[in-house]
# Entry
Amino acid sequence: MKRTRFFSWLFMLTLSFLLVIPSLTALANAKVYHVPIEDNVEKGLLAFLERAFEEAEQQQAEAIVLEIHTPGGFTDAAEDIGKLIDQSQIDVIAYINSKAHSAGAFIALHADKIYMSQNATIGAAGIIDGEGNTADKKAESAWWAAMEAAANSSKRNPLYARAMADKSIDLPQFRAPVGEFLTLTADEALQVKYSEGTANTLQEVLQKAGIEDSEVIAVEPSLAENIARIVTNPIVVPILL
# Structure
């Protein structure tokens, strides 16, 4: 009887160990893809992000961290990037290390989580045409709706997203009275729940998101993608035309 109990205990112990091994292996192999969004937003950036997201999905990554530093760019490219983020089966984290303005703010708002460095800002999303002038009313209205939808997609108050693009919204407490676009600091973004926290390094972001033990895979644009980004840059396009 004792021998039977011993072998039963040994069997259960071995079975438990075998069940734990896959979990430990998965934990050890967990990956986070670190993808930069720098300079202007254009179609070349979209192509680069499509490759990065596809690779992350193939590797069954735990999360994608978009490190954002951009003054903005083309709204059509930003909208396509927003769709790419929305369709991702992987958690997407936006880390604003400096500024996410205009199209950059729109992209950040599609992420599941947003973290900002202490000196970072998000906002100033007024739409302008290719010649630097304020866009017509139709284009403005469509962009306002898109900004609100971006905030709603991540369950954030759409008022602040609208104020980033619409000067008629009165938010003097954030230096954005009527006639000014809203731009939030890191502390203000945290206050209105447009940020999950303040982090000054990528490692701090990973710690706050609870994925600090994951392997970080850095993805950079290829030579062809860099050329595509130059050719589709909002400043270069008018020159080429």
Residues 14-28 have pLDDT under 50 and may be disordered. The two ends are 89 Å apart (CA to CA).
